[in-house]
Write a structure and sequence with these properties.
It is a single chain. This protein has about 180 residues and is mostly helical. The chain has one domain: Tetracycline Repressor, domain 2.
Length: about 180
Amino acid sequence: MSDTRTEILNLAEKLIRQRGYNAFSYKDISVPLQIKNAAVHYHFPSKADLGIAIIERTRIHFARDSKKWDQLAPLDQIKAFIGIYEANQAQRLRCFMGALGHSYETLPPAMQAVLAKASAEIRSWLEGALEKGKTSGAFGFKESAIEKADLIITSMLSSLILLPITKDDVLANVRNSILMSL
């Protein structure tokens, strides 16, 4: 992967996580990187190609990280998962699911498909981690593992959305509540 391609991916991902997919153009990438729009098109012929590459890169990172987390105790797995959101908050970014989810209906079909796949993989991993913790007795929550996974994911997404509005560390409150409810 060329340095220019990586720089394009990094900036585009930041723009998506700050503004959303529909709120930036190739010019928003080419000007700060001091390259021509044609250079962006060379690496990513369409904006959908760029969006898909970002989602796929995120999927690869999540698969790599979650594989490492599988070696941890159940509570530490959930803390590591929450750490993704904490890292986003530290950079004042929304997570990619929150940044793309609100405009899902306007995304190109190929992006919708890859985003849905990423969502399913994240939910499945979290459901499995919660189920292992519940089965081992480490967790005592009453709802099903998928219900708990959905509650955790939506709470974390919402906390990042609320941050710029409330200026409060909603994520810390949500994190503490989630960990106490396990």
